[in-house]
Amino acid sequence: MKVALLQLHPLDDADSADPGWLAPIARNLGNLGVDVLVLPELILPGYNRPDAHRDLSQSLSGRWVQQISSIARDANLAITFGWAERAGDQVYNAASFIGADGAIRGHYRKIQLFGPMERQSFQHGSDDPPVFEYRGHRIGMLVCYDIEFPEHARSLARHGAEILVVPTANPVGYDHVQEYLIPARASENAVNIIYANYIGPDGDMAFGGGSVIVGPDGRPLASAGRSPAILIADLPKRTDFADDTLSTQLGELRA
């Protein structure tokens, strides 16, 4: 499976309210044969915009999902994106996986909210992270801080996930996540991980970039520095050794 991630500066107000800017990027990636594109956390309506999280949040049947679905169909690739989801009176830090046919294949509400801003803006998700099949691969979803808790990645691996898509908004000063924790999660569970971050200032905070695509042996397949970037990689399948190792590890945990 060929995957891509987009590392970009936080969007301005207009672009963070309307994902139309994504269409030409997705179309170009689709022409390159990319199967799955992963965007950062809360790309709609922006991460460090607590004023907008409730006011601009939308439902699963809202305009944002419809627009991303249309872009995915036109580009013939799947898109994973983070966004502020409204469900009744609650607002969630959510991520959705939209297939190339425009259908929602996976949807997840972040469980591990990070810092006072997220906890003030959002309700904690209560459902287990999903695992679903797409183009012959089992895919699991997490959002940013979730991946730093080993049990979430391990649960997805136990349910058959071989690829984890992780929209993120990791600030400056937390580079150890990309450098050490993401490779560790990949290696200990024998999974591929696509970890898509922002770069640069966003109001009173700044993001550190360092987006990465990691293989099931924990080695980076592609990594970004501290500038906007598009990463593309062909994901390897689990090797027989990795499968045996994972089976042994999971068996020991069940014992």
Automatic annotation (TrEMBL):
<dbReference type="InterPro" id="IPR003010">
    <property type="entry name" value="C-N_Hydrolase"/>
</dbReference>
<dbReference type="Pfam" id="PF00795">
    <property type="entry name" value="CN_hydrolase"/>
</dbReference>
<comment type="similarity">
    <text>Belongs to the carbon-nitrogen hydrolase superfamily. NIT1/NIT2 family.</text>
</comment>
<protein>
    <submittedName>
        <fullName>Carbon-nitrogen hydrolase family protein</fullName>
    </submittedName>
</protein>
<feature type="domain" description="CN hydrolase">
    <location>
        <begin position="1"/>
        <end position="237"/>
    </location>
</feature>
<dbReference type="InterPro" id="IPR036526">
    <property type="entry name" value="C-N_Hydrolase_sf"/>
</dbReference>
<dbReference type="InterPro" id="IPR050345">
    <property type="entry name" value="Aliph_Amidase/BUP"/>
</dbReference>
<dbReference type="InterPro" id="IPR001110">
    <property type="entry name" value="UPF0012_CS"/>
</dbReference>
<dbReference type="InterPro" id="IPR044083">
    <property type="entry name" value="RamA-like"/>
</dbReference>
<keyword id="KW-0378">Hydrolase</keyword>
<dbReference type="GO" id="GO:0016811">
    <property type="term" value="F:hydrolase activity, acting on carbon-nitrogen (but not peptide) bonds, in linear amides"/>
</dbReference>
